[in-house]
Write a structure and sequence with these properties.
The structure holds 2 protein chains of 2 kinds. By secondary structure, chain A is mostly helical. Chain A has helices at residues 2-33, 40-56, 62-83, 88-110, 123-149. Chain A has 5 helices and no strands. Chain A starts with a helix and ends with a helix. Helix content of chain B is 5%, strand content 44%. Chain B is globular. Classes of the chains: A mainly alpha, B mainly beta.
């Protein structure tokens, strides 16, 4: 139970960090495209600043949003796994992707179509975010598979 | 760099000296239970036109609110920050009764909308001869950041603020669209041939300046165009707008995104203009007026900016391009959506929200 909870928290942290990475990169890539002098140092500084500010000083703490999304999606995945025999890794990977996608798609409905996560405005951005959700969910599912095997 | 340091120091100094005033004044409620009052146009001391975001144009006649909204208003999209927004009188209003209205207009199918400006003749209880003189392009899916404020330059051309639409912020840096721009047109909608990008095939000819976010106030004082705009979280700005200039958004900004993310780590770049003042944290500037009245002599020749957060009016004294003093006024009324000067020297305020008020500030 302890290990499971730890892996759950870790998967939420992975997803949050990756979403922030995507947000950081999408902003910085655009800045580069208009000739702003973005260096590696600025990238790291901005990323670490975002890790703090997107979780502590944004309108909604990102980690809380991801945690809520993952808890709902993982719970649904667990129920489905009672009836359907698929690899936990794949089931939770799908749940992670759906959770992130739901956050990106549903948030604008609450804010007059405004995309609060700027990195999720484009289809490519949404796809990348869903991929990061998939990776985080896969990590959690794989950890469950590994735990069961041992 | 020195310019930036000067601005930071001045902002700090003016913030330190931003204090509640000692001037004696009183409030007189002109109208209440208003539905999101937004823009004010003072005809004379007893007659005031104002918009309600929900789509009504109202008039205070001889000091009393006419209970009937003015008829003939075009269809507006009332959603988010969208609705019937700005209003301005023609410089020759007394003889031609012409007014200009800005609003968010729904496109066919209503999935998208855009900023539209019309001119119309005001007659008794209605407007007619309505002509669309500007429509921002392209349309948007969002209902936010319209700008939608207007001011006349001394040459009779009309400036219109066109916001970045929130989701389209990067477009403010490109000249092939109207997001995040100040637009300059003639009062009949035609485009002045001396606009800075007129004849440039890669630019929209109506564009006068660019790199703006959500400009909520614009006034012209002795040929100088002052423009304020909402920053994101922090970074509200007061700029002196000039033709062809780039005001930097979102490549440079003093604010952060609502998610907490850094939009840009840069606050300055060569070729991009600096604000003459910025606010961190945000005050959410809304309307703006330049006070030339004599009812409050200590306030004469000051810029008044209404603010939504926490809700007050900022009186700014400006010397050259420098804000030398900031004073907080009327901070007991809640969020203030617009501020206007009346010819009798009183100040007209519109409080924000679905039970908004129109308030006159006079001396005791």
């Amino acid at each position: 139970m302890m290990v499971k909870s730890f892996n759950l928290v870790l998967s939420i942290l992975i997803a949050t960090s990756l979403v922030i990475l995507q947000e950081t990169l999408s902003n910085l890539f655009w800045l580069i495209s208009v000739g702003m002098p973005v260096s590696i140092g600025i990238f790291f500084l901005t990323y670490f600043e975002n890790l703090i500010s997107m979780n502590l000083s944004g309108a909604i703490p990102l980690i809380a949003l991801v945690a809520i999304g993952f808890l709902i999606a993982y719970s649904v995945a667990r129920i489905i796994l009672i009836w359907i025999r698929v690899s936990r890794s794949y089931a939770y990977a799908l749940a992670g992707a759906v959770a992130i996608l739901a956050i990106v798609l549903l948030m604008p409905l609450a804010f007059y179509n405004l995309d609060i996560l700027a990195g999720g405005r484009s289809t490519l951005g949404k796809s990348i975010l869903a991929l990061f959700g998939l990776i985080s969910g896969y990590f959690f599912g794989a950890s469950l598979d590994k735990q069961r095997a041992t | 760099m020195i310019k930036k340091i000067n601005i930071i120091l001045l902002s700090l100094i003016t913030s330190l000296f931003a204090f509640a005033n000692n001037t004696d004044y009183k409030y007189q409620t002109l109208a209440e239970n208003l539905s999101h009052p937004w823009g004010i146009a003072v005809i004379d001391k007893d007659n005031i036109l104002f918009t309600e975001l929900s789509g009504q144009l109202r008039i205070i006649e001889n000091g009393v609110l006419n209970p009937e909204p003015i008829k003939g208003i075009p269809e507006v999209l009332f959603a988010g920050q969208g609705g019937l927004s700005g209003i301005i009188l023609d410089p020759e209003f007394n003889s031609n009764k012409t007014i200009y209205l800005s609003f968010s207009s729904p496109d066919v199918g209503k999935k998208t909308n855009t900023l539209e400006v019309v001119r119309a003749k005001l007659s008794s209880g209605s407007i007619d001869q309505i002509e669309t003189i500007f429509k921002a392009s392209p349309s948007r899916r969002t209902a936010a950041h319209y700008g939608a404020k207007m001011a006349f330059l001394d040459d009779g051309t009309l400036l219109i603020t066109s916001g970045d639409g929130f989701n389209y912020r990067e477009s403010a840096q490109y000249l092939d669209n109207h997001y995040g721009k100040i637009i300059r047109i003639n009062s009949d909608g035609s485009i002045p041939s001396d606009n800075p990008f007129f004849g440039n095939k890669d630019a929209m000819p109506e564009i006068w300046s660019y790199g703006h976010r959500n400009q909520q106030g614009i006034v012209v004082v002795d040929g100088i165009v002052y423009e304020n705009e909402h920053g994101p979280m922090g970074g509200d700005e007061l700029n002196i707008a000039e033709p062809s200039k780039n005001y930097g958004w979102p490549a440079i900004t003093y604010g952060k995104d609502y998610s907490g993310a850094t939009i840009s780590p840069f606050t300055e770049k060569e070729g991009m203009e600096q604000p003459i003042k910025y606010w961190v944290p945000s005050i959410a500037p809304s309307g703006m007026t330049y006070y030339t009245g004599s009812l409050f002599p200590e306030w004469t020749n000051s810029l008044f900016i209404s603010a939504l957060v926490p809700g007050d009016v900022r009186r700014l004294e400006i010397s050259g391009n420098i804000v030398s003093k900031e004073e907080i006024l009327f901070n007991d009324l809640g969020r203030i959506r617009d501020v206007a000067s009346s010819p009798d020297g009183s100040i007209i305020l519109a409080t924000d929200g679905q039970n908004g008020k129109l308030i006159r500030v006079t001396n005791k």
